[in-house]
Amino acid sequence: MCGIVAYIGRRPATPILLEGLKRLEYRGYDSAGVAVLEGGKLKMARAVGRVRNLEELIEKQGKFEGSLGIAHTRWATHGGVTDKNAHPHCDDSKLGHGIAIIHNGIIENYASLKTYLTEKGHTFVSDTDTEVLAHLIGEVYKGDLEKAVQAALREVTGAYAIAVVCQKEPDVLVVARKGSPLMVGVGKDEYVVASDSSAIVAHTTQAFTLADYTVAKLTRDSFRTSTVDDVPVNAQVKELEFDLAEIELGNFEHYMLKEIYEQPRALRMTLQGRVDMRGGQIVLGGISQLARQLATSRRIVFVGQGTALHACMIGTYLMEELGKIPSDWSYASEFRYRNPIVEEGTVVVAVSQSGETADTLAALQEAKSRGAMALGIVNVVGSSISRETDAGVYLRVGPEIGVASTKAFVGQVMVASMLSLFVGRRRYLSADHVTKFLQALDRIPAAIERALLLSDHIKKATEKYIERENWLFLGRGLNWPVALEGALKLKEISYIHAEGMPAAEMKHGPIALIDKGMPVVFVATRNSQYEKVLSNIQEVRSRGGHVIAVATEGDEDIKSMAEDVFYVPDVPELLQPLVTVVPLQLMAYHAAVMRGKDVDKPRNLAKSVTVE
Ligand code: F6R
90 an active-site residue? Predict the structure, then answer.
């Protein structure tokens, strides 16, 4: 979602800001803007479209010099995608303060604030909630930007990460957050502020994260953090664990492809140090303190959205099978509003790559307020969800830049299986049973490596169906969420209409869609429901559909039933999603490239969805 970069220091701000915006492009955006304080005057540029449009505009407007500035990529919430709605936004020019602000989040009470300010004579030039906040800061400004920001934020409800500058204070950058991510990189005589560390690490590896309701006043060589009520708070500067190579494309054409290929290495990191083969144990330091409570819990609910939701579905199967605890999954967005029953012994597990998804965070908060134990399966260290949980397990798959989630998905499934084993071992599972399972887990990265060898074959097969606008993805049991994930991947990056569903459900309506040549992808590995899936394949064939199957290596029978077969290594049924998803990721990738789509930045999508 929206990306924030701000700089105060002794170097020219503009190149740092633009480079930072490019690093944040993966979050998804529709317009971008910059404001720099040059010789005590604000210089601003805003443009719809890519950051390169903004760069061109800046070149046209002449140099933007100055060593203090703010920059933003916007993902529209209030108001259309136009230059005037792009950030930064300024306070009312009549007041002559020259305040500019960038904002990520939503000001929920912006309408009443706007009415109040309009009555006071303010005129607004955009349709955004952010401009209202800029005017509010201007309204309460009395020569001290930090104080004005604190005062304004005391009146605001909603979520925000903001960075604010003021012409009258050329040596001050004020930033604040509540609910939306914000990080402050601490360099020598400079600070780089950003929505996430990818825009910071090129400059410094020392950083602190702002807690909710915290404001930071940054000058070139010092900083002060306080609450919105001006109570001083400590900020802990920590070393960022980040390897710049992880966010570089390297030899790959797209981040999505790079991340698909990174999956074996990523999962080795997920497993590292957590597997005790000899003792038949899984070691999860993050939740060890709650082990007993978890093992005696009565119900486990996995919540997430999108791809993470598919991992939640798989988590449910794994937890029931291995942990033997009644388990369920729910869209976080539905869970939070449906008056969920949280009885004693309920554990809610929030699954999220970014750790910032607004619905997932809110579901977790709702569950906690009703007395549930809150666990997290999260990738981004220190993210809002990870901080809100009682305990959790990080994915450790490294930064995911491509908007379409790939390596995070397998990481989430891997952690869900580890969590289920952790619980199961404390309940019914013998050390031997766990050891066998761990050996199978350990072989997964190599199995994915084999599945990746299919890429050329998948590309050729996909080419045959590339003109088709409607696809079905079907599977049973654990292959059902994988089918859903295959359909989601295809639709989100190639804009082909794709539906995923349980194979048995097809007969209850969707079969009417099947006509001659419609591609129907079956996840049809050898497992307990294999025979049933074969029957479903026959039903599709007899109606003229083109069957594409993901099958188990060595399965000769399926060859006669499918036009194209992608063979994956044989792994235990419970772990099959980790391998069967790979051909579907590759298929979606090749389809999007063939259709000439922007694979890493699909239209209308954002990497982390920080609004409801
Ligand atoms: C799809 C995708 C999204 C996310 C969803 C949740 O490829 O990336 O569906 O999975 O927005 O995001 P996180 O995992 O960050 O909570």
Answer: no
